[in-house]
Every structure is written in C-alpha cells, then in structure tokens.
C-alpha cells in the first residue's frame, strides 16, 4: 500500500487522480495541497511541509510557478516526488536536476504509455527520413484551459528528435515574423488550443511527394493519472536520482 500527497489536488488532473486512487486498493491519498482548502475527502494544506498525515510520495500536477517552492518542500522532508507539471523554465529544470541529487524525482511531460512509445518510433523514423530530405514538424492540440504552449510533450519530443538528428537542428516555434523559406534543419512546433481536446501530438515527416505522420491521441485524462500513480509506486524505495518513463516501462 502506498500513501500519497496530491499537490494541485483541486485541479483537473488532481481530481482525476483522486478518482483513480479511490478505485485502487493498493494506493490512497492521505492529504493534498492546493490554494483552496476544501473540495476533497482528504485534508488540504497550503504546503507539503504543513501536512499532518503520513505519506510516502508526492504527486504533482499544478503550475510552473509552484515548482520552486515544491522542490524545496520535498527536499526538506526527503520525500520522493512525481513531477508532472509542464511549462518549466530552463532554470527550473536545472533546479529539478539539482533536487534529484537529494531525493528521487520522476519527471515526465507525458505520463501515457503511448506517447513514450511514439517518441521512440519518431526517433527511428527521423533517423531514416531526415537524411533523405524530409522536413520534421510537430503539431500538438489541447483544450482551451491549457496555460503553457507548446506542450511539454511536444518540447520533449522535439528534444528527442534533436538528440537523434544532431545539434545543427533547432526548434522553430513562431514563423510569423520571418519572411524566408523553411530551413531544412528546423523542427517546427505548432500549438492549437480549443474546446476540451485532451491532448493530441502528431509528428509529421514531409518529403517530396510523400508524408509520414506518427500520431498519439489521448482520449481521457485517466491515462496520465494511471501513469502518475504507477510512477509513484515505482519511486518507492528508490535512491535519489532523476527517473522517467523509459525506466518505468523498462
Ligand atoms: N505530465 C503529464 O502527463 C501531464 C498530463 C496532464 C497535465 N499535465 C500538466 O499538469 C499541470 C496541471 O494540469 P491541470 O490540467 O490539472 O491544471 P489545473 O489548472 O486544472 O490544476 C492546477 C491546480 O494547481 C493548483 N495550484 C496552483 N498553484 C498552486 C500552489 N502554489 N500550490 C499548490 N497547488 C497550486 C491550482 O489551484 C489548481 O487546482 C499542467 O502543467 C499540465 O500541463 C501534465
Ligand atoms: O492537459 C494538459 O495540460 C496536458 N499537458 C501535458 C503537456 O503539456 O504535454 C500532457 C498532455 C496534457
């Protein structure tokens, strides 16, 4: 049995995790952290360090602005952290790496199995298609409540592709001010926001007279919640370090 502290418990993902855990006999949420202290069956605090109930692991789905403080709270208590919030700055990502020297941290911009599989498939496709002259574009679509753009997943896929293709490749997030043809070394990233789209990521390889598209569609937020709870179970008893889906999937 694992006991959890849910950071961002009143948010969309926090509520889905609460439902998933309520149906899981091997996990429980003993306490939560959010800006408002009502709305759940478990007590809610304004900081992880204020929580009175025992817990093994913190799961976070909140906002980038909360992460500096969250890292300090988890390291001060020596609590493992499953960090799912996206939109972190480069400085914050360095802070995550530094905190992971003290506590186990699982960080993934996308907790679904499928996205992590297609990222590996895209690496393979890119290694064959880009040298043959195919342009690489990532198109992501999300709901109209999402704050960060492009999505953490799109950035993480772009990083994987750049890692595969070489340092001469670069990200192009906004062509609006440019008046020039596409650079062959661009990895274009486009973000669409609308309605209740849970999350779609398409990697397009556009060649001369042929297109290859690799696409993942999330049909519910539950896939992220299940991945986060599995990550919390995976972290239990682990040494300090930075873990991700590649280790969880094995
Ligand atoms: N890694 C993944 O698989 C994955 C999947 C879905 C969403 N996300 C990311 O998770 C984050 C949350 O998504 P959401 O849709 O639940 O957002 P949301 O806006 O619905 O919920 C965020 C919650 O965090 C709370 N919050 C804000 N500041 C806080 C603070 N200082 N301390 C504690 N709680 C605070 C808010 O009050 C809110 O209840 C986003 O960054 C999103 O991109 C990641
Ligand atoms: O709903 C969101 O917000 C999501 N955010 C993640 C991202 O930015 O990649 C994962 C998909 C859902």
UniProtKB/TrEMBL annotation:
Residues 3-111 form the Dihydrodipicolinate reductase N-terminal domain. GO terms for cellular component: cytosol. Its main location: cytoplasm. InterPro entries: DapB_C, DapB_N, DapB_N_CS, DHDPR_bac, NAD(P)-bd_dom_sf. Catalyzes the conversion of 4-hydroxy-tetrahydrodipicolinate (HTPA) to tetrahydrodipicolinate. NAD(+) binds at residues 8-13, 23, 84-86, 108-111. The lineage of its organism: Bacteria, Bacillati, Bacillota, Clostridia, Eubacteriales. One of its GO terms (molecular function) is 4-hydroxy-tetrahydrodipicolinate reductase. The keyword Cytoplasm applies. It comes from the Bacteria. The active site is at 142 (proton donor/acceptor), 146 (proton donor). Homotetramer. Residues 114-248 form the Dihydrodipicolinate reductase C-terminal domain. It comes from Bianquea renquensis. It catalyses: (S)-2,3,4,5-tetrahydrodipicolinate + NAD(+) + H2O = (2S,4S)-4-hydroxy-2,3,4,5-tetrahydrodipicolinate + NADH + H(+); (S)-2,3,4,5-tetrahydrodipicolinate + NADP(+) + H2O = (2S,4S)-4-hydroxy-2,3,4,5-tetrahydrodipicolinate + NADPH + H(+). Keywords: Amino-acid biosynthesis, Cytoplasm, Diaminopimelate biosynthesis, Lysine biosynthesis, NAD, NADP, Oxidoreductase. Pfam families: DapB_C (PF05173), DapB_N (PF01113). This is 4-hydroxy-tetrahydrodipicolinate reductase.
């Amino acid at each position: 049995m694992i006991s959890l502290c849910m950071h961002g418990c009143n948010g969309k993902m926090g509520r889905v995790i609460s439902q998933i855990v309520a149906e899981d006999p091997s996990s429980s949420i003993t306490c939560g952290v959010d800006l408002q202290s009502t709305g759940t069956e478990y007590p809610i605090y304004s900081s992880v360090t204020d929580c009175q109930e025992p817990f093994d692991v913190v799961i976070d789905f909140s906002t980038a602005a909360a992460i500096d403080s969250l890292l300090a709270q988890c390291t001060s208590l020596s609590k493992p952290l499953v960090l799912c919030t996206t939109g972190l700055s480069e400085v914050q990502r360095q802070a995550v790496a530094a905190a992971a020297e003290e506590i186990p941290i699982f960080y993934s911009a996308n907790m679904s199995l499928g996205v992590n599989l297609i990222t590996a498939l895209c690496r393979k496709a890119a290694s064959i298609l880009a040298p043959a002259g195919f342009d690489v574009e990532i198109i992501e679509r999300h709901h109209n409540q999402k704050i960060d753009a492009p999505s953490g997943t799109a950035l993480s896929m772009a990083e994987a592709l750049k890692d595969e293709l070489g340092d001469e490749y670069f990200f192009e997030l906004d062509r609006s001010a440019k008046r020039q043809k596409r650079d062959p070394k661009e990895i274009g990233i486009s973000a669409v926001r609308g309605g209740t789209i849970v999350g779609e990521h398409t990697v397009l390889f556009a060649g001369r007279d042929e297109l290859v598209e690799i696409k993942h569609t999330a049909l519910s937020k539950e896939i992220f919640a299940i991945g986060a709870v599995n990550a919390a179970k995976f972290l239990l008893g682990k040494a300090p370090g930075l873990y991700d889906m590649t280790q969880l999937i094995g």
